[in-house]
Amino acid sequence: MSKPASVIYAPEHCGSRHAHDHFEVSAEPPANQLLAWRDRVGHVIDVLPTSHATTTHFNASIDRYKLGDRIFTDCSSDALLLDRSIPRISTDNVRDYVFQVFTQGAMESIRGGSLDSGTSAMASIVAMDMNQPIRMNRGRCRVLTFFVSRPVVEAALPHAESIHGRVFENTTPVTQLMIEHVAAFSRQLPSLSSAEAAASFDTAVQLMLAAFSKQAKLGGHVRAAARSAMFDKARRYVQSNLYQPWLTPEYVLMAMQLPRATLYRLFQHEGGLGRYILNCRLREAADELVRYPDRQVIEIAYSLGFNSASAFTRAFRRRYDLAPQDHRLMAAQRIGRAAQGNRSVAGRIDQ
């Protein structure tokens, strides 16, 4: 399949240093258009083709700007089903937070984070943690995307992971203000200097972080800082004891020496402390299944506090929509394809 050439350049005006990469699929025959798009965005998220994907026209284009350590994209596309699965997460290193602002169209449905059952929402602004699974059904749209490093988001929000899958609909003056600011930033970006682009990018991110903080009731200056410190301490305790069979909410309560109501409020955005412990163990198990392909599933399950293989499999399937064995197989296939691609590139270089 031939691929449309991407053009990478820095705008010529004085002081600009941001690289710009434009890509579109219009030059491809219809049978290849969605596949070309899947190849282009596949380093971040998987495009799931429909049964008629190779028989109909598919329109899509993207402008990608690298602003120092910041990344911004302006994308227009027809309807898409997008998926970032746990096998995918276990085999890549993309861990940013992503904020998507829809200036045309919207996210029609989203599943991930607190939306485990799948929630329909005509979302105008969506937040995602790329370290967590998500599936999105997106209508025809134009979407402006901010890739923000974990330290930036986690410094601003006490429970940053809890914003994964959260949405805003364009129904309030504040939301409208955010969308207008982001749209103006996108229009002006080609003519901005590096310093101006970075400052405008950061302003947009801070607006969105403030909005999500207010929505999740995570703000509050001194109280929020104290709550954040307590949450981080409890989270570190859980993470360092995932392999201890005695790890339960009661043991965390004793170790933290906090009132029960205070501790449980800290984890309300995670579905409760018990759910948080379970999800951390399942996430660790997902990585272990890939890291140690010869280790038996039951061994990993027992080491992380599960009483039986069936209990582990049920919990894993509820969390990730696939069995542990299927996760391991899919991850191995992805690693194999990546290795084959690297060998092909090396072969072309040697020729």
TrEMBL record:
GO CC annotation terms, alphabetical: cytoplasm
A GO biological-process term: positive regulation of metabolic process
Predominant location: cytoplasm
Domain HTH araC/xylS-type, residue spans: 232-330
SMART domains reported in the protein's UniProt record: HTH_ARAC
Keywords: Activator, DNA-binding, Transcription, Transcription regulation
Subcellular location: Cytoplasm
Family annotation (InterPro entries): AraC_XylS_family_regulators (IPR050204), Homeodomain-like_sf (IPR009057), HTH_AraC (IPR018060), HTH_AraC-typ_CS (IPR018062), Tscrpt_reg_AraC-type_HTH (IPR020449)
GO molecular function: DNA-binding transcription factor activity; sequence-specific DNA binding
Origin: domain of life: Bacteria
PANTHER family registered for this protein in UniProt: ARAC SUBFAMILY (PTHR46796:SF6), HTH-TYPE TRANSCRIPTIONAL ACTIVATOR RHAS-RELATED (PTHR46796)
Role description: Regulatory protein of the TOL plasmid xyl operons. XylS activates the xylXYZLTEGFJQKIH operon required for the degradation of toluene, m-xylene and p-xylene.
Protein name in UniProt: AraC-type DNA-binding protein
Native species: Pseudomonas extremaustralis
